[in-house]
Specification:
This protein is mainly beta and 495 residues long. It has four helices and 36 strands. 7% of the residues lie in helices and 40% in strands. The chain is elongated.
Length: 495
């Protein structure tokens, strides 16, 4: 899509628009009453509605439970996926310190990163959509794959045309597909085993984003020309605004009463989903954004580095985390290249075995008064030789090696520098009383490694029983910004 800059502009609505009388009536309200009316309208549209008939209560979904405990192949229609490094597992001190545990998988080191848990749903696709309840993917040959609690798990675009955009109705069980070659928007009823389909001519061409209301009765589209379309599913669509491409978010509220459209730059708006009247313009800071989701009255926008900006649409301000909010994940389906991933919003500590360990090496330059550390993550870092504090790169020719003892300490001219920390392992058998070392290179990246030489066998124990609850405790690791050998002022809690 073309990427231009600008703000959305509302267009004139048809004379018979049901919003016209209400708009004329609101024109006579005072400023305070107008603000109250606007907030009430937004709130009514953003509040979730009760699930509609046909959506199974407590049905299996592809959300957080699937990320943490993926189903076996064939156990659920469309929900099979290959395990991959970094998948979220319940971390506890006993397993982190045991080189024989499932986390280490026969490796000599374990990399811990604070990031977003994710699981590959399917690869070799060109379009995808979904969240923690359901997802769909389209392939270049016109085939569609559906993930979630539906009778329909696969479908095909007529004529084998590839679907360039997909949208799911979370409660209505409807999948919409936009296929440019067919010049139609195709609607599939996922509650039927044969994926019964209807087609509706599209008033636009080229690349487009589409969205369905949760009940599946309303459709929105944003085309490459910048037109925002809105209307009944299968009925006539009309332009309600123009805004630049690309969009980071095009979504109906959980009740279906409002439509939110937000560009990659953070500019956008909220519209009445029935009348098409613009309710509020938005100018969200923190971009650029690559995608997002609508949760209640908040928009969750994803940045390219994986960070999430949460913005309250009622007041057009950054939303604070509610203390009473359940500590659960919000998930979305994200297309990266040709692979569709289910990604969680919240960050967790993820564990990945490392089979080629880079041992830390320390050098000293007397002329540069600096220490050079070739670190465990493969990067080179520089520190002040007097204080051990981080410093910029030093160019010198008199580097000489400084030994690091088994406790992680390096001695230089009467000063001690701590490169890594020694932990007591909790292994059993050959790994009993093994030493485990830790090096936190940043607040979001830690490497653990063991003194024991691995036996050469790579193991992945998928059926290993979970440890007793008494061992389900976090691991606190020291974190230093430099190499100073001083009491730790900060720890990282791995759980």
């Amino acid at each position: 899509m073309r990427h231009t800059h600008g703000t959305p502009s509302a267009t004139d609505h048809k004379p018979h628009s049901p919003a016209a009388p209400a708009a004329r009536q609101r024109a006579g309200l005072g400023p305070v009453k107008r603000r109250i009316a606007l907030a009430a309208c937004l709130l009514a549209g953003l509040l979730p509605a009760n699930p509609g008939p046909g959506f199974a209560q407590g049905a299996a979904h592809v959300g957080e439970d699937y990320i943490n405990n993926p189903l076996h192949v064939g156990a659920q229609n469309g929900t099979s996926a290959a395990a991959e490094p970094g998948a979220a597992l319940a971390l506890n001190a006993a397993e982190l310190l045991d080189p024989d545990s499932r986390l280490w998988a026969g490796a000599q080191a374990l990399r811990l990163t604070h990031g977003q848990a994710q699981r590959l749903l399917i690869d070799k696709v060109i379009a995808g959509t979904g969240d923690g309840h359901a997802a769909a993917a389209a392939s270049a040959d016109g085939s569609l794959r559906i993930f979630g609690p539906y009778a329909c798990s696969s479908a095909r675009i007529p004529g084998g045309q590839p679907a360039l955009a997909l949208a799911l109705a979370s409660r209505g069980g409807i999948l919409a597909a936009w296929a440019q070659g067919a010049n139609d928007i195709i609607f599939y009823e996922l509650g039927t085993a044969g994926c019964a389909a209807t087609m509706s001519a599209a008033p636009f061409s080229g690349e487009a984003d589409i969205a369905l209301s949760p009940a599946g009765d309303l459709l929105a589209a944003h085309d490459s020309a910048g037109s925002l379309w809105l209307g009944q599913r299968g009925g006539e669509l009309r332009i309600v605004a123009r805004m630049p491409s690309p969009l980071a978010l095009l979504s109906f509220s959980e009740s279906g009463g409002t439509l939110a459209a937000i560009g990659a730059t953070g500019r956008g708006g909220v519209w009445n989903a029935r009348s098409g009247a613009m309710l509020r313009s938005l100018n969200i800071v923190g971009g650029p954004f690559r995608g997002g989701a609508l949760r209640g009255s908040d928009a969750w926008l994803r940045k390219r580095d994986g960070a999430t900006v949460r913005w309250n649409l009622l007041h057009d301000v950054a939303a604070a985390e509610a203390e009473h909010e359940p500590q659960r994940d919000h998930e979305w389906a994200e297309l990266r290249g040709d692979a569709l991933y289910l990604v969680s919003t919240r960050r967790k500590w993820l564990a990945e075995p490392v089979y080629e360990l880079t041992q830390p090496l320390l050098d000293w330059s007397a002329r540069g008064k600096a220490l050079r550390l070739r670190d465990v993550d493969g990067l080179v870092r520089y520190y002040d030789a007097q204080s051990g504090k981080p410093m910029l790169q030093v160019f010198a020719e008199d580097w000489s090696g400084v030994p690091i003892d088994s406790q992680g300490l390096a001695q230089l001219q009467g000063r001690s520098f701590r490169v890594f920390d020694l932990l007591r392992g909790t292994g059993h058998g050959a790994a009993a009383d093994s030493q485990v070392y830790s090096r936190a290179v940043s607040a979001s990246s830690v490497l653990l490694w063991t003194s024991r030489v691995p036996g050469g066998e790579i193991r992945v124990k998928s059926a290993e029983p979970r440890l007793q609850s008494v061992a389900d405790k976090p691991l606190d690791l020291p974190f230093r910004t430099g190499l100073e050998d001083a009491p730790v002022a900060r720890t990282l809690r791995i759980k």
